[in-house]
Amino acid sequence: MKDSEQAKEMKTSTTAGADIIEAAKDAATSLKMLFIDGLKDIYWAERALVKALPKMAANASAPNLKSSIKDHIAVTENQVTRLEQIFKLLNEKAEGKKCEALAGLLKESDNMLEETVYGPVRDAAIIAGSQKIEHYEIATYGTLLTFAKVLGENDAAKLLQQTLAEEAEADKILTDVANGAVNMDASQV
Ligand code: FE
Ligand code: ZN
Ligand code: FE
Ligand code: FE
After folding, report:
1. What is the distance in A from the centroid of ligand 1 to the CA of 27?
2. Residues less than 5 Å from ion ligand 2, measured at CB
3. Is-above-0.70 flag for pTM?
4. What would the pLDDT profile of 105-120 be if each residue is shown by its tens digit?
């Protein structure tokens, strides 16, 4: 199709060529199911983070960055436990389902280690990657909290609220570490 024809078609129908996707056999038919799917996704993600964070801490050179990542390992382990409590509240088996988004973010963070020299520049890269992860978690827990509330799952909502606050705090700490010295140091090497 010529560009001009394509532009004309887009004008008439912005959804032309895009189909309604056929649902898988186990597709969610209710918000409750979508909620549980989301919990499985972030359960996988948090456990992957428990494994990945030590590598990030080991590669951080600024002491305050290293210690804040180490602190977040313990926080993350507790978030895993909290998710297990939520599964229990919902009478669901605690099981993870691969989170493609976090797997991608972790891969990108890994690549950034190789693409930076150890020191303030790598520290800046670690903060950049970590903040993408925290923002992903904030978005995820924000959605799950909203779902829990509308579903009347108030005990689950309380637990999700606690984790959401921790992720927001982690994000803020990373910003403070970056602004504190890391970015300035990185700009001077
Ligand atoms: Fe987390
Ligand atoms: Zn995900
Ligand atoms: Fe996106
Ligand atoms: Fe986090």
Report:
1. 26
2. 41, 99, 101
3. yes
4. 999 999 999 999 999 9
